[in-house]
Amino acid sequence: MTAQFSNKGEAWSARFSEPVSDLVKRYTASVFFDNRLAMVDIAGSLAHAEMLAAQGIISVLDRADIERGMAQIKSEIEAGSFEWLLDLEDVHLNIEKRLTELVGDAGKRLHTGRSRNDQVATDIRLYVRSAIDDIVLLLQSLRGALLDLAEQHADTIMPGFTHMQVAQPITFGHHMLAYVEMFGRDVERMQDARKRVNRLPLGAAALAGTTFPIDRLRVAKTLGFDDVCHNSLDAVSDRDFAIEFCAAGALVMMHVSRMSEELVIWMSPRVGFIDIADRFCTGSSIMPQKKNPDVPELARGKTGRVYGDLMSLLTLMKGQPLAYNKDNQEDKEPLFDTVDTVVDTLRIFADMAGAITVKPEAMRAAALQGYATATDLADYLVKKGLPFRDAHEAVARAVRACDDAKCDLSEMSLERLRDFSPLVADDVFAVLTLGGSVAARDHVGGTAPRQVREAIARVRAQLAS
Ligand code: ARG
User: Taking every annotated instance into account, which residue ranges of this chain make up the domain Argininosuccinate lyase C-terminal (predicted)?
Assistant: First the structure.
């Protein structure tokens, strides 16, 4: 097992004449949060060692020792027996020290031509890359679940809202497809950010590069990077790729939060459009009748912390002169928090989407309440030759009359409707029904059930490719 190391004899300590105080040690250490980078740190070290050996900078034997030691360290970490020491500051020094303990001088040679500055930048890029890949899969599975819901309800009519007032009838399937589109753009944003994440900093060393004859492209290839970072100062210092990722994560949460807001409203007993399975809700400790939509509410709340993470990183970066500054150690917790929050939220939402029960009768009743087909009546009059503004006016008067009579437009008699325009004939009732209204919006992007089914097929084909 690893011994407790004193401050003396550490990677940087020969230069120092007095030990660091305990408080400063705790203040400057990152090992208790950056140890989550352990596996990518080891992967980076193995690729670096492989290149050092291939270039004749270390011996083949040294490389074999490093590989053996790292395999042992990996299994200790996986078994939970690896002892992380605050004295050793961060994940990099902890692993290096243990390696040296296990394999001797070869462990001390690993850091040749490398600095923790390019090492940590590499680790974070590997970490963000794999987070992006996970998040893209989760977004696609959420989209798949929403597509299923949309398909079941391609014909289910609900009121569409503007200003939170009933506006025009739409289908619930169409409404779900709006979120499929939003999360689809989130996928694109993640994939686009990945291109800029996937470049290798190693080789930049502390800031200026290294005097050893390294082969950066070889390391890039081993680690699956598309390219190397082309400027050593930039490579070790900028975290724009992590900021970009957090911005994309913030947009994912913004979409999740909008959806959450709707789920909360729809589930409120006053609205009653949906129910969410009990396993996503909780009760109240005092009010026995309650079933609260906790998951959507929490997701809406957690959106704030992800925005905060983004703001932290932007602020962290803005004042830093080139090249590396210790400020950058503060990049990790906000980044990890964004990954954890986005991953957990998407995982729960993909599951919850399949646990939503739609109540078509409540949706239909609400759609019948707000003169949702008024625009259809106006369009009808326009098709009979009335200029749109005049049609708008005629229908506005009809709606006022309905208000007084407490009835829907479709419940007015033909004679009464003709009071507002003599162009009305008995074919008007076909456009005043909710079904007629949605079916008539039959173009790409429209709410007609036929279009909803086509849109679903289009997205399914993309998901399958
Ligand atoms: N723990 C450090 C970080 O997260 C590693 C790099 C430290 N480099 C240094 N020159 N102190 O940024």
Answer: 371-439
